[in-house]
Amino acid sequence: MPPVGLKSVYQQYKRDTNIVASWLAITAKSCGYPTDLLSEVATGSEASASAQTSSTSQSKTKGGKNSKGKKKPKKSGKAADSGEHSGPKKYTVAVAEYIPLAQFISTSKSEKAKVPGVFAIAINRVIRLRKEFSSKLAGIKNKRNPESDMSHNYFIGILEQVRDVLRPLMTPEAKSVETNLSNKFEGLSVDEPSQDFLDAPDIEKPKVVYEAEDTMSDTDALFILDLLWKDLINVRGATKAMWINYNEGSDADLTAVAVASNTGFDLARHMIDDVFPVLEAQKNGFYGALKNKHYMLCDLIVSWSLTPGNTDAPELGLRIDDSVDDLFYIGGRESFLNTLSILSEVLPGLQSNKKPIEPVNLDNMKDVMARKGVPKFDRDRDILKHVFEDLAFIDDHLGKKDPSGLIEWPHVIEDNLLRGLREARQTGKIPFYLAFASQVLLDIHHYLGKKISKPKDEMLDIMQKLCDQFSEYYRVLTTLDVFEKFDEYDHEMREVATGCLELQEDPIYMAKLALQKKKKLGSAAKPEKHGFWKRHPIACGLLLYAYRITMYRTGIHSANVSRSILCAMHLYNAVQAEGQLQQPWPDLEAAMALLGPSQFFIGGKVPTEMKEYSKSLMMQLGVSATSFMDPSKRRGKTRTKVFQDVYHRLIQLNTPTWMAFYDRYVADYGRTGPGAWRLEDVYEIIPERFHFPAEEDSKTPEKPKKTKANGKAARKPVHPEAMDPASVIIDLSNALEYEAYQVSFPFFVLHAQAFWVLHDLREDIRPFVEDVIGPVANELRKPAMPCHVVEILQACKNHPDPSRALFMLRLSADHLERVLTAGLGPGQFWGPPIPGVTWREEGATCTRGEAALMHFQRLGYDLPWKAEPTFEEEEEEEDEDDWVIKFR
């Protein structure tokens, strides 16, 4: 459940003002305040509903008859109730009522006239926020609306007087609350609910809800916008921190940073949507408040530039020799008017068959805005012009169906920039969140500087390595003549491999060349290959996410269909436990270290005796445990279901944060509904261990895995009461980076190699198996061929001579050693040798047993047994020695 404090600054302010108004009205009425003296003004929706009800009732005659005097049929009770009690009535408490209500409560002798801590916290927080804003206004020399400022300060005086009147009635908890809270979460306590609370019946919902009156002068509108700015600046700062970390060569994962950045744009879009209609309904609208915000920022920036030693100046990039144009550029950068101005110029010029895009009218602000000719502004304009020209081209020409119904390179991932462009084309208006996202993109360009090509180069490099992995997968399955039989299980991975190859040539670049040729634009400038990807680092990370998660998900799925990795793990464990195999299978060791034993063995218990091997594997494959019991000892039915639902016994996709974005970026190509990905949604998908530090009473304390060569672990998580949108974005990035280690392991390469090993083993050991258990099926269904390991282990268990049973395991071990030590050929793979593996063929750079790890190391990851293992959340405590099959 999301914590109480998980709100934007504006949402918290609205909640606090409503708490103050609601408590005053409800407490006063409960203390005997005359109802006729309380100005209960119905909200707009309530008033319209009331008017509609009144209009409907007037059309009816008395006695419930229609105009002809006939009785109308009665509605069912449920229908009537749903119409009459669709929700509590909402009333607005006028600001003028606050002091009379407080005075009445203070003179009341009712026991209910006690001021709780939640009221004290709320009123103190509202006063603090408004006073902070008043202090900002006091520092501005050019007063634009003194009367509006007085109106803003008037409400502060009302609240302070209410607090003073009620102070004698405050409970000890309320008195302990400081009147000057340092942040919006101070004073909150987040406790686990007791069992009595959870078992308590639902409380009756209130029939009336009181809300604070929205008094909105120009200064109040500017104050509301300033609340929004606090969150926007924090999200922007969190994004900056992630990209700086990435740029400094740390272990920051490009995919994690890009997905978290675009999610930050989602949060910003929702926060803007919360505030935009409130301000747009005022006299000067949202952009009127925005202009005032820009004026205020410019005044402050000019003041800071003239104040020696000002601590805010370096953070904004202010220098003593900055010109007035430079100062206006900085002001527009912080108010987002620079990007809004650029978009107003660029977007209407992009040709489209859709509705013309109207520029935002900023004419009366030309005197305090950056203009063409200022180098920094011209640079930003050039970047955004090229980015949005490419986005418009993508929207018009890529991901479209041709006449045959095929889709040409469909992997166009919609981020918030492409979403904003499409929205502008559909509505004819530039959404403000697009100006915010555009400024953050410019920030990323400024952070990366000359390294702006780094994300593009990394994306192409990883995609080339994904192609190499798929080539090995294709080579193995083609050799075994089963590649086509896996098509229905791995077709998504094949599409990704094709997409990776196409991206090396850049589909956007190729489509532009084709369009120039078609329109005979021989004199046009040749487009820049991979230019869009260089200018849009977030797009690089999002496409990389879609390709990497598809490879991971499809690889696990294909391995589960054939049970290749599962059966290979059980056979490998048996021959090692019996001392028949002295050398390791490095890829399987890596899989065990990454996933843990519970992914391969029921209950995470690794069998160590001959009689347990076949039983353990059959149960993992879905055979019911009762099938191994003596029928006379079974309770209830003696005939039981042999096979159980085996889905939960197969290898699970143990990367919840990565999988949370699968539908969005893979199935829907980034498109999402207007209400999706709100703050609470994002918080819920982040594993709890990234919100809470490990507790001392945890049975298996978390051991963060080292993710890349420098071995840097994820940062220590924070308590939820300190969570805000920016913190959620940082935690999301950490969670994605943490899970990237497992996602990057090429399970489909291990699946192919395991399939190959078990395929060859089947023919070698088949005669010995048939001697014990009789003739076996000529051929299992090709994809399920690895399940013949059950026959081997069952034959070993049933053989009356233990030495002969051990002999069959020795034959299996000899086969494993012979096949696993076979080299895959020089020059096919690159990477350092795997420690402990000394038995490669001469001239071979890799063996079948380490193919997946070689690819893993090429991506820059440490070997799994060099990093701390990921401890699974199991109810029963398990021995740490069981987490990795030891080299024996």
Automatic annotation (TrEMBL):
- Stretches the record annotates as Disordered: 44-87, 694-718
User: Basic residues: which segments have biased composition?
Assistant: 62-77, 705-717
What Pfam families does its record include? Answer: DUF6604
Span of domain DUF6604: 11-277
Basic and acidic residues biased stretches: 694-704
- Composition-biased stretches (Low complexity): 44-61
User: In terms of domain of life, where is this protein from?
Assistant: Eukaryota
Protein name (database record)? DUF6604 domain-containing protein
